Structure formats: C-alpha cells, structure tokens
Amino acid sequence: MNWQDLGAALALLLVLEGLLPFLNPDGLKRAIRVIANMDDNTLRFAGLTSMVIGVFLLTLVR
Predict the structure, then answer these.
(1) DSSP character at residue 38
(2) Tell me, what DSSP letter sits at residue 37?
(3) Per-domain boundaries in the chain
C-alpha cells in the first residue's frame, strides 16, 4: 500500500459519509437519536461487525 492508495481510501470515506446528510438530513438526525440511545455493548458490536465486514470486502477487492 502506498500513500496514494491511503489518500484515495480516505477521500472515498468522506464521499460516502457525506451522502446521507446531503440526501436525507432528517433521516440522519433520526439515526443519530437512535444511536445515542443505544447501550455501549450494542454500539461496540455494531462497530466490530462493520470492521469485520470492511476487512472482508477489502480482501475481496484486493
């Protein structure tokens, strides 16, 4: 991996994170309220699941 790949990955992350607030700001606000009310273990599990899926997808792409 080189710095150009890392920069491209970070740029893509910003584009994807910007989609929901741009397309549906009210939906994002509702989602944040739901997330704020979740317990810590549920959030940790969601984060772990997201990371595992991300690593799996990255291995498929690479």
Answers:
(1) S
(2) T
(3) 24-62
Report which DSSP code applies to 25.
H
Q: Tell me the C-alpha to C-alpha distance, in Å, between residue 56 and each of 11, 16, 44, 52, 53.
A: 20, 18, 18, 6, 5
Q: Among the residues of 1-62, which ranges form H helices?
A: 3-23, 25-36, 40-61
Q: Report d(CA 13, CA 32) in Å as an integer.
A: 19
Q: For 16-52, what is each residue's pLDDT tens digit?
A: 999 999 999 999 999 999 999 999 999 999 999 999 9
Give yes or no for a contact between 20 and 28, defined as CB atoms under 8 angstroms apart: yes
Query: How many DSSP H helices and E strands does the chain contain?
Result: 3, 0
What length is written for the chain? 62
Q: How confident is the model at residue 62 (pLDDT cuts 50, 70, 90)?
A: confident
